[in-house]
Automatic annotation (TrEMBL):
GO terms for biological process: cellular response to unfolded protein; negative regulation of programmed cell death; positive regulation of insulin secretion. The chain crosses the membrane at residues 296-313, 320-336, 348-367, 374-394, 406-423, 430-451, 485-503. Its main location: membrane. Keywords: Membrane, Signal, Transmembrane, Transmembrane helix. InterPro entries: TM7S3/TM198-like_dom, TM7SF3. It is a multi-pass membrane protein. It comes from the Eukaryota. Pfam families: Ig_TM7SF3_N, TM7S3_TM198. Residues 1-21 form the signal peptide. This is Transmembrane 7 superfamily member 3. Residues 299-503 form the TM7S3/TM198-like domain.
Length: 570
């Protein structure tokens, strides 16, 4: 008998588990989706007509509800009615509505719809708030919905901008809402504050399950505060718009929490996510971000940089070519991008040509003039540029004072110039440090062209700021995850190894090679005066070239036949 009871209990438990799973994946057999407050639902929308959703048994202490639905990149529509109206529906990958409840209302219905023919995997949740909680988007004057809890996102290559409508104070059921512009005292919505949060998805993961899972961590106020990074705090006097540096291929979730400091209550807007790229575009889509031209360019650049990292000081002219290539290529790319609309691949080819010309010019300047201080100034400025870029890559770069272009560029230039000044008395150490650090960083850039890493934004953020005047207002946070720690270790290992090897190998040797032009001139004078030198009897260069051309011309002349060709005189 006891065994039979155990079997019955096991069957009942299995039935309960199946019933619980049905709450996660919606059942469309009855044409109705039932929701519970605070519970996530993951389901597929695949019907060409609106799907009705309903919530029962709403508590009396709930004043308003916020429903939100999310998908990876396909649009979904949530509406108050089966007929879609601009001021009563929202379409997008992250959409939400606010339901202001009437007295004694205990049931709420709304409608879900998709425009695509393919099924859309979606995740949705319904949140409840009381009359003490602020209402996100309650003072909307910019967007279509009367009360709009959504965050609107726009992005380009340089920056990602989010915008949202101001919130209003909470109020009880059946009462009129507080006026949005009645006054600016502490009894109005002007006392509210807005905390902007940013959350990074795992790097190099574009799967649908990943974004839907992590969106669940950015919905409620406690979850947002526990998992995300607070980037900025806005007051009611600030513009409800925040910009961030775009990270193509990197998933990012943004959310805003409105806080009432008088009542110490909060409410969360509808989170929004982006990859700063398109899943549907053929070229430059999220699945194929790395260009072949970038891979070829940075691979060749890394091979030269790897050689410089370990042998740059010994091969001084090769290092000068490397430094000249960096300086000329950087400024030429900025100039050609700002002034011309040519495509990226052409710009990269022209940058490589201009950089090569700059490298050869610096080598020629050293060969002819031999001024060590000018060459080392170029070397020191390149190292200073990277150190200054690393400085602003830290949270220091997000300080409000550096959002001003004048302050930023003056500070950036001072740090870059400080490096050659500090090492003025030990030029060989400066040169070896530059070889190790800059050469190893070129390897990091090559790795980024194949496997995305946040370390490339050390210099890319500076380049973006030089190319785009609006980038100064953007926050430049980037994720720092497992891949980045590994590549940072590789960068440090290469730099330390290259510096140590060159310092040990150059011990006891001359600091720098002598002036090449003087050596050539002295050698030429020695050859002219010393007749015992075999090179003394070598003809001048012009005569040697003329003789070589004569030999080449003889190869194309017809061979004259042997024998007499004129008749003999009898």
């Amino acid at each position: 008998m006891g065994l039979l009871q155990l079997l019955v209990l096991a069957v009942l438990a299995s039935e309960r588990r199946v019933a619980g799973a049905a709450e996660v994946f919606a059942n469309f057999s009855e044409g109705l989706i039932e929701f519970s407050v605070g519970k996530f639902r993951i389901f597929e929308l695949n019907r060409p007509f609106p799907e009705e959703a309903i919530l029962h048994d709403i508590s009396n202490n709930v004043t308003f509800l916020i429903f939100q639905i999310h998908s990876q990149y396909q649009n979904t529509t949530v509406s108050f009615s089966p007929t879609l109206l601009p001021n009563a529906s929202k379409t997008g990958t992250d959409s939400g509505l606010v339901f202001i409840l009437k007295p004694e209302q205990s049931t709420c219905t709304w409608y879900l719809e998709i425009s695509d023919t393919e099924p859309v995997q979606s995740m949705a949740i319904l949140l409840s708030y009381s009359e003490r909680d602020p209402i996100p988007g309650g003072c909307n004057l910019e967007f279509d919905l009367d009360i709009d809890p959504n965050i609107y996102l726009e992005y380009n290559f340089f920056e990602t901008t989010i915008k949202f409508a101001p919130a209003n104070l909470g109020y009880a059921r059946g009462t009129d809402p507080p006026s949005c512009d009645a006054g600016t005292d502490q009894d109005s919505r002007w006392r509210l504050q807005y905390d902007v949060y940013q959350y990074f998805l795992p790097e190099n993961d574009l799967t649908e399950d990943m974004v839907l899972t992590h969106l669940q961590r950015m919905v409620t106020v406690p979850q947002v505060k526990a998992n995300a990074l607070k980037v900025a705090t806005l007051t009611a006097n600030d513009k409800t718009s925040v910009s961030f540096s775009s990270l193509p291929g990197q998933g990012v979730i943004y959310n805003v929490i409105v806080w009432d400091p008088f009542l110490n209550t909060s409410a969360a807007y509808v989170p929004v996510h982006t990859y700063a790229c398109s899943f549907e575009a053929g070229e430059d889509s999220c699945a194929s971000l790395g260009r072949v031209s970038s891979k070829v360019f940075f691979t060749l650049f890394a091979l030269l940089g790897f050689f410089i990292c370990f042998f740059g000081h010994r091969f001084w002219k090769t290092e000068l070519f490397f430094i000249g290539f960096i300086i000329m290529g950087f400024f030429f790319y900025i100039l050609i991008t700002r002034l011309t609309p040519i495509k990226y691949d052409v710009r990269l080819i022209l940058t490589a040509v201009a950089g090569s010309v700059g490298g050869m010019f610096l080598v020629a300047a050293w060969w002819r003039c031999g001024i060590l201080s000018i060459c080392m100034l170029c070397v020191g400025l390149v190292l200073g540029f990277l150190i200054s870029s690393v400085t602003f890559f830290t949270p220091l770069g997000n300080l409000k004072i550096f959002h001003d272009d004048g302050v930023f560029w003056v500070t950036f230039s001072c740090i870059a110039i400080l490096i050659p000044v500090v090492f003025m008395g030990c030029l060989r150490i400066l040169n070896i440090l530059t070889c190790g650090v800059i050469g190893s960083y070129s390897v990091v850039l090559a790795i980024d062209s194949y496997l995305s890493t946040s370390l490339s934004y050390v210099t890319l953020n500076v380049l973006k700021r030089a190319l785009n005047k609006d980038f100064s207002r953007a926050f430049t946070n980037v994720p720092f995850q497992t891949n980045d720690f590994i590549i940072l270790a590789v960068w440090g290992m290469l730099a330390v190894s290259g510096i140590t090897l060159q310092i040990r190998r150059e011990r006891g040797r001359p600091f720098f090679p002598p002036h090449p032009y003087k050596l050539w001139k002295q050698e030429r004078e020695r050859r002219v005066t010393n007749i015992l030198d075999p090179s003394y009897h070598i003809p001048p260069l012009r005569e040697r070239l003329y003789g070589r051309l004569t030999q080449i011309k003889e190869l194309f002349q017809k061979e004259q036949p042997a024998g007499e060709r004129t008749p003999l005189l009898l």
